[in-house]
Amino acid sequence: MTYPENGPIEAFIGNESPEAVIEPELPIIDPHHHLWDLRTADMEPHASFEQKVYFCEDIMNDLRAGGHNVVQTVFAQCGAFYRADGPDEMKCVGETEFVHGIAAMSASGMYGEARLCTGIFGTADLRPGAAVRAVLEAHMAASPNFRGIRSAFPGDLNATFMAGYAVLADLGLAYDNYSPDFERLPTLGKLADAQPDVPVIVNHLGGRIDPDADEEEIANWRRCIDAVAKSPNAVMKVGGAQQRVGPWEPPFHMHRRDTPISSEELCELLFPWYAYVIEAFGPERCMFESNFPVDKECVSYRTLWNTFKRIAAKLGLSESEKTAMFSGTAARVYRLQTP
User: Fold this and answer.
1) Contact predicate 38/297, CB 8 Å
2) Is 99 strand, coil or helix?
3) How is the chain split into domains, by residue range?
4) What is the CATH number assigned to the segment(s) 23-333?
5) Phi, psi dihedral angles at 195 (to 5 degrees)
6) First vs last Cα of the chain: how many Å apart?
7) Is the pLDDT of residue 7 over 80?
8) Pairing of strands 200-202, 174-177
9) For 165-179, how does the pLDDT look when each residue is reduced to its tens digit (9 = 90+)?
10) Those residues with Cβ within 8 angstroms of residue 123's Cβ, 6 or more apart along the chain or in another chain
11) What integer pLDDT is reported at residue 339 of this predicted model?
12) In whole angstroms, how far apart are CA 50 and each of 54, 55, 58, 261, 295?
């Protein structure tokens, strides 16, 4: 099914001449994508996203057109389909219920060979402390694919929040986090150290990535990356650098050019940032991610994964290191079946 609200972004992607797929047989687990219906969204950041509807068929169309060997995916929290009724703290469980339905649709095989949402991370408010256990257990009951949450954390890491965070360890769940402000990463490292059994998954290279950043900003970002990389249970999602952040748009955004950027151009432009985090964390603690359909405002699915494969080649990664970054780390951290 096509949606007229998706017309502008689909037209933009349709303007490119598809590249040849690099290493088409390489198994990929995409550990970060969203699903949603934003046609009535009136709050940011959702109101400004160009892909208004993204369901099972929509992401499968992107995977199919991409031509890469994506075998599994992980759904990333985005506030989709919260319950309209019931206690406020439980409304977020509706997102997991929705995504579990998409996972069941995909598992039927009717939409293609890739298995969508074999891992799911939603959200829960950890600020009430140990009382969050009921919410987390409701997520787990809603889907056996539930693997953890993504939420914000307080700068002071107060005792009540930390009591809620400790429940993640008790339940064997992971903690994803993203903030455009990379200066929060040292505190995220302290949070990781507090519960070594909780995988802490840093999203999108740790913050907003500006290709035009000055040397001072780049040096500060590197310092913050190093601070969180010291925690052995911290893992980096290597991607998301292609996204708009609030009103700020990268120079290759669909609002700033008529045709999508090529993988060769994108690799050349962003390689220093990608190379730095891979060096800081090591490939065994890194996973490439699509962040679709957010990054689709800048690049097609095919071109994005070609970019990642160019980065791997430029770094001279071994076969085992490539396996880790394209599937192995995601399978380990989100407890998925290894492809």
Assistant:
1) no
2) helix
3) 23-333
4) 3.20.20.140
5) -135, 85
6) 30
7) yes
8) parallel
9) 999 999 999 999 999
10) 77, 79, 92, 95, 149, 150, 151
11) 67
12) 11, 14, 14, 17, 10
Residue 24 contacts by C-beta under 8 Å, 6 or more apart in sequence? 67, 68, 69
pLDDT tens digits, one per residue of 36-58: 999 999 989 999 999 999 999 99
Are the beta carbons of 105 and 111 closer than 8 angstroms?
Answer: yes
List Cβ neighbours of 225 (8 Å cut-off, separation of 6 or more): 182, 185, 206, 276, 277, 280
Q: Which of 124, 129, 130 is nearest to 148 (CA)?
A: 124
Which tokens go with 262?
A: 């090529």
Buried b or exposed e, range 25-34, using 16+ CB within 10 angstroms: ebbbbbbbbb
Cα→Cα distances 80→69, 123, 185, 323, Å: 27, 11, 26, 31
Opening angle at CA 32, ends 13 and 297, nearest 5: 25
* Burial (0-12, 13-18, 19+ Cβ within 10 Å), 87: exposed
Eight-class DSSP state of 296: G
